[in-house]
Amino acid sequence: MWKAAGLTLAGALVLGLAAAGWAYRHLDDNITGVDIDGALGDDRPARAVVTPSASGADATPLPTGALTLLVLGSDSRSGKENKALGGGDSGGARSDTAMVVHVDAGRRSATVVSIPRDTLVTRPSCPRTSGGSTPVAHGVMFNTAYEVGGPVCAVKTVESLTGVRMDHYVEVDFSGFARIVDALGGVTVTTDQDIDDDYSHLHLAAGTHHLDGTTALALARTRHGTGDGSDLGRIGLQQELVKALLDQIAHAGLLTDPARLYRVADALTAGLTTDTGLDSLGELTGLGRSLSDLASERVTTVTMPVVTAPSDPNRVVAKQPQARQLWQSLR
């Protein structure tokens, strides 16, 4: 979810920072890249055709074809900041939030599909960085894919579940998300019910609130103090945060405040892991420019249709044929 906002921001970076070589290099070095295409090879769904469109007489044509990204928020357990924000004590991490972001041809509208982390799936065999591969696992929680095989296995599991090729991968950890919100000056959200969740340390009355990074992260993570206490209730709050962040970026006036622009760009890139097709500031900027006409009101947010798992009342499975039809509409 945090990624759609970050990619919109990327379009502004080159305008404010291209002349400052040291700043550009610093931001570029912030980004962590993972060679997902190299690890997975050709045994994947077909890639969508990307159509270039002229953006000016002397400019490099911008792509306008449909594009699909897997966006993860990870509950990384490494680093003092992540631990302080609820990342846990061990050295592992799981995907705390998963969204498939499909940008339509023309790149003026998009659909964001949330995958509940409690969904039971068949996790395919995934290559390990140390060699060998993980075994196929049936009826396991979706978020274990990241835990056992990192970004590569997360992408492979999503592609297996959806039949949709992930053109890019974007991941932000706990501390990265909180820093982005703080650098933007906070984010304004409206909740339609009281939230009282001791687990995420979030206590909000129903109404409109301007949240700092730590509180916005707690809102993204809360599940016990609102709705039915399930992951499905939490997803609705996360989707509202996506749109609120898009609006905040659009109205932040970053181009007229270079110092603030740099703070936001530094916070964004420092918490970012991408595939190698987006692991440079230039590549992020190009993507951001191609999404410059994508406004929050043209972003549709949905959740993958699910039903209670027969094997466990606390888990869900994809509801068919509705889930299959949703993914087919995005191919």
TrEMBL record:
Coiled-coil residues are none
Question: Which top-level group of life is the source organism from?
Answer: Bacteria
Q: What region holds the Cell envelope-related transcriptional attenuator domain?
A: 94-250
A single Pfam family it belongs to is LytR_cpsA_psr
Name the InterPro entries for this protein: LytR/CpsA/Psr_CW_biosynth, LytR_CpsA_psr
Q: Report the sequence similarity comment from the record.
A: Belongs to the LytR/CpsA/Psr (LCP) family.
The name of this protein is Transcriptional regulator
Native organism:
Streptomyces longwoodensis
